[in-house]
User: Which sequence fits this backbone?
């Protein structure tokens, strides 16, 4: 099975707390994303067995959500909102600036940049989700600070 014993145990515990085991599917998908770094074909197959739901149905739910990735992500996902409010408040410029700051500094494996739908943080537009933390309103200094923070965390781990 593509999932670790610890991940399977957590998912089974969540299933037992729900009136119907399949109600724990979103929790399971988030858990797999956090533990395995992706919800790819092997993970979908494993969840299909655990939930007795067809892989196509699992895949359909998994691909609906921007925060679930079918491929391995960088260790630090940086998701910039592309919702209307954020775009009106400079989200595209933040996205472009972020791209220019990435060159030569970060490997794809360390930081994964992506655009996502509204994060529900519109009152702090332009917003982003860095690892699991909502940030905003962002300006260029904030972007530099976020990336420097990631570099600092990497240095701590090396
Ligand atoms: S539009 Fe960006 S957080 Fe809602």
Assistant:
């Amino acid at each position: 099975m593509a999932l670790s014993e610890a991940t399977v145990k957590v998912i089974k515990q969540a299933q037992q707390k729900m009136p119907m085991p399949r109600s724990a599917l979103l929790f399971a998908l988030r858990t797999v994303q956090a533990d395995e770094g992706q919800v790819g074909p092997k993970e979908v197959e494993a969840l299909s067995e655990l939930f007795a739901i067809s892989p196509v149905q699992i895949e359909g739910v998994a691909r609906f959500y921007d925060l679930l990735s079918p491929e391995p992500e960088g260790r630090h996902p940086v998701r910039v909102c592309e919702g209307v409010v954020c775009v009106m408040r400079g989200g595209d410029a933040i996205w472009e600036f972020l791209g220019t700051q990435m060159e030569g500094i970060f490997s794809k494996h360390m930081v994964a940049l992506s655009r996502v739908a509204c994060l529900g943080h519109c009152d702090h537009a332009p917003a982003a989700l860095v690892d699991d933390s909502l940030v905003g309103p962002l300006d260029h200094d904030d972007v530099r600070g976020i990336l420097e923070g990631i570099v600092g965390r990497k240095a701590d781990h090396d």
Summary: Residues 81, 83-86, 118-122, 125, 127 surround FE2/S2 (inorganic) cluster (CB under 6 Å). The two ends are 31 Å apart (CA to CA).
